[in-house]
Design goal:
The protein has 417 residues and is of the alpha/beta class. It contains 16 helices and 13 strands. Helix content is 45%, strand content 16%. Helix 9 crosses helix 10.
C-alpha cells in the first residue's frame, strides 16, 4: 500500500482543518461528499429518531453482533500484575485506558454499521471515558451520516457523532475544532488521544500523517482477502469468499493461492457464474480483474504458506485438508479463517472477532483492532528503603559506567546510615 501520493493529497487538507476548523471541514464535505451537513455534530434527536426507525430484524442482528463483540473483546483485557524482586521491592503492571478516542466509520460506496460496532465495543470494553465517532455526510439523509450508522451509535450509547468524512475527519479528531476559532457549539470537537477505524487510502494516509500527535491503530485501507486452498477445497465456497470481499470496492484485492490447477479452473468457472447473479457485479468484476487480484499457483502447500506469509493478507482463509496445521505455520495475517465454514464475511459481522484489520502488508507487524489500541501499559515502581539498599551498589556502578554519577548519588544518598 504505497500512500506517498495520498499523503501529498491529504497534507493540505489536514493543514486547512488545523488552521480553519469547521469552515474548512464544511467546504471539504461539499467537495468530497456533495453536501454540507447542517452542523458537524449530529443532534441527539436525530440519533434517537434513527434508532426508533431501525427495522426490528436489523436491530436484532446488530444486538447479537454487539453481544458477541463484547464477549470477544472482553477476553482480550490484560490483567494487572505485581512482580516481587525481594523484600520491599515491587513493580506493578497497570493497564490504563486513554481518556478520549476518535472513531472513524467509512461511508463511501457502502455504509458500515458493523464498523460502528467494531470501533465502539473495544473502546468501551477498554474503559475509555469519552468516545467521538465520525462518518461521512450523506446527500440522501439531509447531510447526516447514514441512518443505520446513527441508529447503531444510539444502540451503543454513543451520543457524540459527527457528520464528517475522509482525511478531514482524521484532522478534526487530531487537532480539534475549538471555540476560540469562532465555531458554534454544535461545530466544536475536542481533540482526542487515539484515532481508530478503517477507510480508504486517504484516511490511512491522514492517520499516518497525524501519528505522533495522536495514536492510531493499524493503517486499515482498502480490503483484501487471500484464500490458501488445496484440491480438497470446495470451489463454490472459494469463489464466494473471493467475491464477497471484491464487493467492497473496485480496488479490493482478492487472491487465490493454490497448488491445484484443477481447483483454480473450477473457481474461475464459479466466479463467472456467481458474479452474474451478484447485485454489484460491475464493481466485483473490476476488482477481480484489477492488478491487485490474481490466482497464484504454487508448487505445494509449504510454498503456498511461504507466499501467504509474504503477502500478509488482511483476511486469510485457509481451506486445506488440515487447516489447523496450515494455520500454525502462518505468521503474517490480519485475521485467519479456518476451514470451509468460517467465511470471511462471518468475521465482518458476527464471529466475535474484529473486522478492522491491517492491510497492504502491514499485518507483518500490526494487529487488528482490539482493546489494546485504547490501553496504555504503565509500570509502577514501589521500593522501600530496604529494597533500594539491596541494589544501590549495582546502581552506582552502572551509573558510573555511563558517566552519569548524579544518577548514582540519587540512590546512594537514600542509603540508611
Amino acid at each position: 500500500m504505497d500512500i506517498t501520493a495520498a499523503l501529498q493529497a491529504v497534507e493540505p487538507i489536514l493543514a486547512r482543518v488545523r488552521a480553519e476548523g469547521a469552515h474548512a471541514i464544511a467546504e471539504y464535505s461539499q467537495q468530497f461528499d456533495g453536501v454540507r451537513p447542517p452542523s458537524l455534530r449530529v443532534p441527539e434527536q436525530v440519533l434517537s429518531q434513527a434508532l426508533q426507525d431501525l427495522a426490528p430484524d436489523l436491530r436484532a442482528a446488530l444486538t447479537e453482533a454487539i453481544e458477541r463483540a463484547r464477549r470477544g473483546h472482553r477476553a482480550q483485557l490484560p490483567q494487572p500484575a505485581t512482580t516481587e524482586f525481594g523484600e520491599g521491592a515491587q513493580v506493578h503492571q497497570r493497564w490504563i485506558p486513554v481518556q478520549r478516542v476518535g472513531l472513524y466509520v467509512p461511508g463511501g460506496l457502502a455504509v458500515y454499521p458493523s464498523s460502528v460496532v467494531m470501533n465502539v465495543v473495544p473502546a468501551q470494553e477498554a474503559g475509555v471515558g469519552a468516545l467521538a465517532l465520525a462518518s461521512p455526510p450523506q446527500r440522501d439523509n439531509d447531510g447526516w451520516p447514514d441512518p443505520v450508522i446513527l441508529a447503531t451509535c444510539a444502540l451503543l450509547g454513543v451520543d457524540e457523532v459527527y457528520a464528517v468524512g475522509g482525511a478531514q475527519a482524521v484532522g478534526m479528531f487530531a487537532f480539534g475544532v475549538r471555540s476560540d476559532g469562532g465555531a458554534p457549539p454544535e461545530d466544536r470537537c475536542e481533540p482526542v488521544d487515539v484515532v481508530t477505524g478503517p477507510g480508504n487510502i486517504y484516511v490511512a494516509a491522514a492517520k499516518r500523517a497525524v501519528l505522533g500527535l495522536v495514536g492510531i491503530d493499524s493503517e486499515a485501507g482498502t480490503t483484501e482477502i487471500a484464500v490458501l486452498a488445496d484440491d480438497s477445497a470446495d470451489p463454490v465456497y472459494v469463489a464466494a469468499d473471493l467475491i464477497s470481499q471484491a464487493e467492497h470496492d473496485p480496488a479490493a484485492a482478492s487472491v487465490l493461492i493454490t497448488d491445484s490447477t484443477e481447483l483454480a479452473d473450477q473457481v474461475a468457472e464459479q466466479i463467472t457464474a456467481q458474479v452474474e447473479l451478484a447485485k454489484h457485479s460491475d464493481r466485483i468484476r473490476q476488482a477481480l480483474s484489477g492488478p491487485q487480484s490474481a490466482v497464484v499457483l504454487v508448487r505445494d502447500e509449504p510454498h503456498g504458506i511461504e507466499v501467504a506469509n509474504a503477502y500478509a493478507a488482511e483476511h486469510l482463509s485457509i481451506q486445506t485438508r488440515d487447516p489447523d496445521a496450515t494455520a500454525a505455520a502462518i505468521h503474517n495475517a490480519g485475521a485467519i479463517f479456518l476451514g470451509s465454514h468460517s467465511p470471511v464475511s462471518l468475521g465482518d459481522y458476527l464471529a466475535g472477532s474484529n473486522h478492522v484489520l491491517p492491510t497492504g502488508g502491514t499485518a507483518r507487524f500490526a494487529s487488528g483492532l482490539g482493546v489494546q489500541a485504547y490501553l496504555k501499559s504503565v509500570q509502577v515502581v514501589d521500593y522501600n528503603a530496604a529494597g533500594l539498599a539491596q541494589v544501590t551498589g549495582h546502581l552506582v556502578t552502572l551509573a558510573g559506567a555511563e558517566d552519569l554519577p548524579a544518577h548514582g548519588t540519587a540512590a546512594a544518598l537514600r542509603r540508611p546510615e
